[in-house]
Amino acid sequence: MVEFGEKMQDSEKDGFDPELEAMFEQELRATLQAGPAPDGFADRVLARVDALPRHEPLSWPLRAIRNPVVRGAIAAALLLSVGVGGYFEHKRERQIAGEHARQQVLLALRITSSTLQDVRSKVDGDTTNQQDAN
Amino acid sequence: MQSAITNSSVTSISPSRDGFRDIVERHQSRVFSIAFRILGDRGTAEEVAQDVFLALYRNLDRVQSQEHLLSWLRRVTVHRATDAYRRRASRVEFAADEFCEEHMRLEGTGSVSQRAFESSGMATSIEQMVSSLPLAQRSVLLLRYQEDLMPTEISALLSMPLGTVKSHLQRALKLLRTKASRQRKEAVHG
Amino acid sequence: MTRMKRWIAACRTGVLLGCGLLLTLPAIAQDVQPNFPVELDKKLAARASDVNEVTMNKTMLKFASQFLDSKDKDDAQAQRLIQNLNAIYVRSYEFSQPGQYTPEDLQTIRRQFLGPDWNPMVKVRSKKGEGDTDVYVKMVGNEVKGMFVLDAEPKELDMVYISGSIRPEDLKELSGSFGVPNLNLQKSPTKESK
C-alpha cells in the first residue's frame, strides 16, 4: 500500500496508469479477503436451528404443494377452471336471456296476431252489418 | 459438500444436521465478512449472518446446486445486511475508531487466521476507506474484490443494471484512490 | 373573372348543401318513433287484472333472433318477420269490469298517430259499445315503415306498435296462420261505422 501510495503520488500528474490501476486492484483484493467468522459461529447457528419448532413430516400432497412446478400447475388449473367456469356460466346466462327474448318475441307476435284477428272479425262483422243494412 | 446439498434436497424439510454444519462452516467467513463490511458492526453482522443461515436452512430444499447455494448466500446476505443497515434509524456513520478497536481486540484474542486477516495497518487503512464508501458502492466493491465476481455476475446477483454496477465500481475506485493519495500526502507532510 | 366563377361555384355548393340538409330533415324526423304514453300505461296496468307488456328494440330483436330455431315453424316465421323491424311494442290489458279506461284515454293514444306519415287504415266505432278499433299504417314512399293497432273492448284493451319495414308478404305470411284483416295497403281505405 505504501508502494502504491508513492506510485500514485508520482502518477498524479500523468493521469491514468494501467499498471498502477492493476496494482491498486490487487491490493484491494488482498485486503478484502473474507475474514473469519467469530468463534463458535457455526455452533450458535446450529443451536438456533435446533431451537426451531419441529415440523411433523409432511404428507406427500403437502410436500408436492411446496414444489413450485406443482404450485404453478395448480394455479394454472385453478385459473383455467375459473376461466372455463366463467365462460360456461356466461354462456348459460346468455342462453337464459336469449330464451327469454325468444319467448317475448313469440308472445308479441301472438298478441299481434290475435289482435289483428279481432280487428278482422270486427271489420268483417261491420261490413256484413252494412251489407245487411243495405 | 455437494453431497450435503443433494442430501438436503432429498430430505428437504429436515436436512442432516452434519450436512448443514458443513455448509455453515464452509461459508460462514464469506457471509460474515460481507455482512460486517456492509454494516461495520460485529454484533449486527453476526446476527444478520445467523439469520441468513437460518433462512438457508428453511429453504434448503430449493437449493439446486453448489453455484446456486453460493449465489443465494451472497444475494441474501447483501440484501439482509443492507436492510439491517437502513433499519438502524439513529445509525452513526460507521466509526473508524470502533473499527480499529474491534480489530485490535481481534488481534489480541483471535485465532491465527483472524490475526492474518487484520495483520497490517495498511489493510486496516483500506478497510477504513472501504467502510466510508456509500452503501451501494461498498456492496458492489465487496462483491467484486472480496467475492471476485465479474460486473455481469454482480448485475445478475443484485438485479442491478450492468451500467449501474460499472458506474458504482468506477466511482468507488476513484474515491479510494483519492483517499489513498490524500493519506499518503498526510503521512509525508505530517 | 376567375375569382367570380369560383365564388359562384362556392355559392352553388352552399345552396346545394342547404337544400340537401332541408330534404334530409324530414327523413330524420320520420325516424322519430311514437311512444306509448307512459303515464297512461301505468294507469291502465294498475287497473288491469291481466297485463301483457312487451317492448323489444332492434338490439333485443336481433339478440332474440339468434335463439329462434329455424327448424321450428313458428320460430322460423318469427325470424323472417322480425328481421327488418326496429321495434315491437305490445300492450295488452284485461280488466275485471268495464269502464277502466275512458274515451279520452283512447284519444290520447290516437293523437300520436295523426302525423302526415300515418294513415288510418281501419277505424271501427261500435254501435253497441262493444269497443273501437283503429289501425294506422306509416307509409314512406310506397313502403310500409310502421303499423299501429288499437283494439279496445269494454274489458280488454290491446295496442300493438310495430316499427320498421313491413313487407306485404310479411303481412300475408302473418295472415297465413294468424289471420290478418284484408288491409289494402296500396289504397289506404278507411272504414268507419257509427
Can you walk me through this structure?
The complex is a heterotrimer of chains A (134), B (190) and C (194). Chain A contains five helices and no strands. Chain A is mainly α. The longest helix of chain A is centred in the C-terminal third of the chain and has 66 residues, at 68-133. Chain B has 190 residues and is mainly alpha-helical. Helix content of chain B is 79%, strand content 0%. Chain B is built from ten helices and no strands. Chain B has helices spanning 2-10, 17-39, 42-58, 66-87, 96-109, 112-117, 121-131, 135-146, 151-158, 162-189. In chain B, helix 9 (151-158) packs across helix 10 (162-189). The model of chain B is unreliable at 1-14 and 89-120 (pLDDT under 50). With 194 residues, chain C is α+β, with helices and mostly antiparallel strands. Helix content of chain C is 40%, strand content 28%. Chain C has six helices and six strands. Chain C has helices at 2-30, 38-47, 58-65, 73-82, 103-111, 168-178, and strands at 50-56, 85-94, 118-125, 132-140, 143-153, 156-164. In chain C, strands 1-2-6-5-4-3 form a six-stranded antiparallel sheet. The chains are: A mainly alpha (134), B mainly alpha (190), C alpha+beta (194). Chains in contact: A-B, A-C. Chains A and B meet through helix 1, helix 2 and helix 3 of A and helix 2, helix 3, helix 6, helix 7 and helix 8 of B.
Keywords:
heterotrimer; A: 134 residues; mainly alpha; 5 helices; elongated; C: 194 residues; alpha+beta; six-stranded antiparallel β-sheet; 6 helices; 6 strands; 40% helix; extended; disordered C terminus
> Looking at the chains present, what oligomeric state does this protein adopt?
heterotrimer
Helical percentage of chain C: 25-40%
Q: Based on Cα principal axes, name the global outline of chain C.
A: extended
Q: Please report the total strand number of chain C as a whole number.
A: 6
What is the overall shape of chain A? elongated
Q: Roughly how many Å apart are the termini of chain C?
A: 72 Å
Q: Report the order of strands and helices of chain A.
A: HHHHH
pLDDT below 50 for ≥5 consecutive residues: which ranges of chain C? Answer: 19-31, 178-194
Query: So how many helices of chain C?
Result: 6
Strand content of chain C: 25-35%
- The ordered string of helix (H) and strand (E) elements of chain C is HHEHHEHEEEEH
Please, what is the average pLDDT of chain C? 76
Output the strand order for the largest sheet of chain C. Answer: 1-2-6-5-4-3
Rg of Cα set of chain C: 21 Å
Rg of chain A, please? 46 Å
| Helical coverage of chain A, percent range | over 70%
